[in-house]
Each structure stands twice: as structure tokens, then as C-alpha cells.
Design goal:
The chain is an alpha/beta fold and about 300 residues long. The chain has helices at about 15-30, 55-65, 85-95, 110-115, 130-145, 160-175, 190-205, 215, 235-245, 250-255, 275-280, 285-305, and strands at about 45-50, 70-75, 100-105, 120-125, 155, 175-180, 205-210, 220-225, 260-265. The structure holds phosphoric acid mono(formamide)ester and norvaline.
């Protein structure tokens, strides 16, 4: 499916067909786990983290192990990159030891630089700008619960952040109608909006960008939110709590979605802020399947990139 050295930095680098094929592979790998137990036998994945993580760290480490390889956790505080060794040098050195690198950090340009100088695949495990592995698990979960992806109505309510960016890109690539409600001053970046709009012209999906959560959620098949304060924005949290008043996904707001809507959240969640407990812990929430699917989706990504 993927030829030559390939990185997984953004879903926008892939065609609709390649993305759907990856989702189908993830579902197959989940069902037939044993068939893939040696697919990356002896391969080593470096896992560079500058930010905290529960799901990404554990699902990548467990995932590479389940494919017959091993993960090496590299906290930037412990490696020389944290003391100023250039990213390009780190990329060249790690390429001599490893078969792939997953990185979670702040600046997206750092991940692009790593990919430029590495001779092994680089996987984006979250930047301030994007979270592509998460959205592959999200769409896999949508496929499992809804039996389809294209043509559905997807609503994102909250911050125009890394999750909003990656979801908008993936929805528009896959022909999913994408509605987003963000408060004034917290919109998605305009460069991402342009990409979403050009993707939507190719797939024919609708894109709605508003500041009204009620407008965005109306008739939704999938309802999504994420934290109001992302990693690195902690100092803004008080100001953000005020700005996002009225954006909490509660039972009143979801009553406007389709009765059989599903609720997704990348987690970690803050009950009582972006989502009410009655919604995230309610019958339409599939967040635990979604979290599990990080493992399967990333196994599919590693299988394709590192074989
Ligand atoms: N959703 C997600 O990426 O979770 P972690 O921050 O725990 O990795
Ligand atoms: N937007 C959140 C996602 C966490 C998985 C953050 O960047 O902190």
C-alpha cells in the first residue's frame, strides 16, 4: 500500500483509498491478532516524548511488542535532544539503530525536521498542530459502530486545536460531513481550513464552521469533543474556561443529535468542562472502544510503514 520510506505526519498526505485501506487493515488486525504476531519481528521503534501520555505511550509500546518487535521509550529530558543536540543529528543517529520513530512534541516543524533527516519512518504521536494516529483510531471506531464512514454527519464542539485539525482533515478526505463549533478566538488555523475545503471539493462532503454548538451538533451521527486546555496551554486555563462557557456537551445539547449518535473523545477528559458525565459515561459513548482502537490502528500504521 505504501511504497518506499513513508512517514505518518498528517492524514492529509494520504489518499482516501490508502486511509480506508489502513482502517480496514486495523479492523482485520484486531479480529485476527495472531496472524500478525511476527509481522515486525525484531524491529525496534523509538518513542520520543516531550509531553505526557497514557494512551499513546502504552498503545505504541504494547503494539510493537504484539507485532514481534520492541519499543524504546525516550523521554526528551533524558536524551541529548533535551540539552540542545540538533534534531537533524538525532535523526541521523537514531536511523542507524532503529526501524522507526514515533514522536510526541510541541512544534510540528520539529517532527517534519526529524522526518526530513531520518532514513526510517517517522510517526507523529501528537504535535500542537495535529494528532493523526488518534483520528485513525476514531474513524476505525466509527466504522465499527456505524458500519460506514462516508456520508455521516460529524460534529466537533470545542477548541480548534490539534484534534479539530486532524478530524477536519480526515473527515473531508473520507467524505464525512464535518461541522465544527468553536468560540471566537479559538477557531482552527486558516491553513487547515483551506485544506479541509479543498478536500471537501473532491469528496463532495459538507463543511460547516460556526460558533454555535447547537447548529454544529444538529442531526449529528458522531459527536466529538476534546479538552479546552491542551498540553502546554496550562497558563491559559482560567481564561479558556470562561471563553468556552456554553460549549459543554451535555444531555440538552446531544438531544439535537440523531438519537443513535455516538460520542467520541480522544481522552483525557474533564467531566463538567468540555463534556458532562451523563454523556461520556452514558449509553451513546464509545470512548473505551475508541481508546482500545489506538492499539489496533497504530499496529496497522506500523505494519504498513516498518515492514
Ligand atoms: N488521546 C491521547 O493521545 O492520549 P494520551 O495523551 O494519554 O497519549
Ligand atoms: N488537545 C489535547 C489532546 C490530548 C490527546 C492536547 O494536545 O493536549
Amino acid at each position: 500500500m505504501i511504497e518506499g520510506k513513508k512517514d505518518f505526519l498528517t492524514v492529509n498526505d494520504f489518499s482516501r483509498e490508502a486511509l480506508m485501506e489502513l482502517i480496514r487493515l486495523a479492523i482485520k488486525m484486531k479480529k485476527s491478532k495472531a496472524d500478525y504476531k511476527n509481522s515486525l519481528s525484531g524491529k525496534k521503534l523509538g518513542m520520543i516524548f516531550t509531553k505526557s501520555s497514557t494512551r499513546t505511550r502504552v498503545s505504541f509500546e504494547a503494539g510493537i511488542y504484539e507485532l514481534g518487535g520492541m519499543g524504546i521509550f525516550l523521554n526528551t529530558n533524558d536524551i541529548q535532544i533535551g540539552r540542545g543536540e540538533p534534531i537533524a543529528d538525532t535523526a541521523k543517529v537514531l536511523s542507524r539503530y532503529l526501524d522507526g520513530i514515533m514522536i510526541r512534541t510541541f512544534a510540528h516543524s520539529d517532527v517534519e525536521q526529524l522526518a526530513e533527516h531520518a532514513t526510517i519512518p517517522i510517526i507523529n504521536g501528537l504535535t500542537d498542530y495535529l494528532h493523526p494516529c488518534q483520528v485513525m483510531a476514531d474513524m476505525m471506531t466509527v466504522q465499527e459502530h456505524k458500519g460506514q464512514i462516508g456520508g455521516l454527519n460529524f460534529a466537533f464542539i470545542g477548541d480548534g486545536n490539534n484534534m479539530a485539525h486532524s478530524l477536519g482533515l480526515l473527515c473531508s478526505k473520507l467524505g464525512v460531513n464535518f461541522a465544527i463549533a468553536t468560540p471566537d478566538g479559538y477557531e482552527m488555523e486558516s491553513t487547515v481550513v483551506s485544506k479541509i475545503n479543498s478536500n471537501s471539493k473532491l469528496t463532495g462532503c459538507k463543511v460547516l464552521i460556526t460558533d454555535d454548538p447547537r447548529e454544529a451538533i444538529r442531526n449529528a451521527d458522531v459527536v466529538y469533543t476534546d479538552v479546552w486546555t491542551s498540553m502546554g496551554q496550562e497558563k491559559e486555563s482560567e481564561q479558556r474556561l470562561k471563553a468556552f462557557a456554553g460549549y459543554c456537551i451535555d444531555s440538552k445539547l446531544v438531544s439535537l443529535a440523531k438519537p443513535d449518535y455516538i460520542f467520541l473523545h480522544c481522552l483525557p477528559a474533564h467531566r463538567g468542562e468540555e463534556v458532562a458525565a451523563e454523556v461520556i459515561d452514558g449509553p451513546n459513548s464509545v470512548v473505551w472502544d475508541e481508546a482500545e482502537n489506538r492499539l489496533h490502528a497504530q499496529k496497522a500504521i506500523m505494519h504498513e510503514l516498518m515492514r
